[in-house]
Amino acid sequence: MSKQSEEESQQLQQKEEEQQNSQIIQQEDKTEQQLQQIPYVHMLNNKYNVREAVHAGSWYSSKSNELKIQINCWLEQAKAEVTTVAQLKALVVPHAGYAYSGPTAAFSYKYLKKYPPSEKLKVFILGPCHYVYITQCCLTRQEIYETPLGNIKVDLETVKQLHEQGLFEQSDKDAEEEEHSIEMQLPFLAHILGTDNFTIIPIMVGSIDAKSEEYYGRLLSEYFDMDDTLFIISTDFCHWGTKFAYTYFNSADGEIFESIEKLDQKAMEHIELHDLDKFNDYLREYENNICGKHCIAILLHCIAMSQNTHMMETKFIRYAQSCLVRDKKDSSVSYAAAITFLED
């Protein structure tokens, strides 16, 4: 091949490559324009509106069959000794890794299994923020929450109603996925109710003041009184140890783990009596680092403002600690399960 022919061939090849690149760029631009025209919440294939189950495989099993067996075992071992339940209104449930808190959580969820709803539920899940500092309550932007037992739909209509009230922030996907307090409730709910039989309203509760607790309690009390709603209060109790910067110990109560239990029992007594003032006094006096204290306060406001407050009971049905601390070098987290219900 002559030198001239070789140059012509190279020029032709270069021209063809430029045309191909131009077509690719045009197609990419067209695709991007199409994507921009699609509403954010409907881009399911890209998981832009899906809160993924990021703690599955570490905090609890990502294998559906294994997870079902574990939950079933814990539910079978749990007891439901309160016999005056006409309707469940709220559950207080821990949110640590299932190896630690699963058996305790099952005591609350045992009642949901024993007293199943007669209609599709709207489940409000209030969980504290462990990793992001906010001073309001935060609503989801997502449409779906994933679990190994199936996807759960967010109640978009209710989320929209709440957001229109003006005192809610909206979380971003990364913040939601980092936080575990809401996610840890989902496999139990999915297993007991079935993912088609309920929707969720996940609410991340920030470091709110007493005035905000009352505001959110008043707002949510309207939903609390509805027949098709259930509230989940996701919280652990005392986080004891130097790594938690909390080492309260009253030697008159016995060993450290016994002191912790008596400390937590004081909080549980105020909650059972629905006495928010005494609960707040207790927190000021002992500074017990109950991570879901603001979630509990919102629940107590809901109960106080309920039309059925005189018919409502709250009972703690299980208590456990991750470690029976005897040495000041050790640490522990307390787990408690409770139910709030209308009496039969």
UniProtKB/TrEMBL annotation:
Which PANTHER family would you find in this protein's record?
PROTEIN MEMO1
- This chain belongs to the protein called Protein MEMO1
Q: Which domain of life is it from?
A: Eukaryota
Q: Which InterPro entries does this one have? A: MEMO1_fam
User: Region entry Disordered: which residue ranges?
Assistant: 1-28
Q: Which family does it belong to?
A: Belongs to the MEMO1 family.
Provenance organism: Paramecium primaurelia
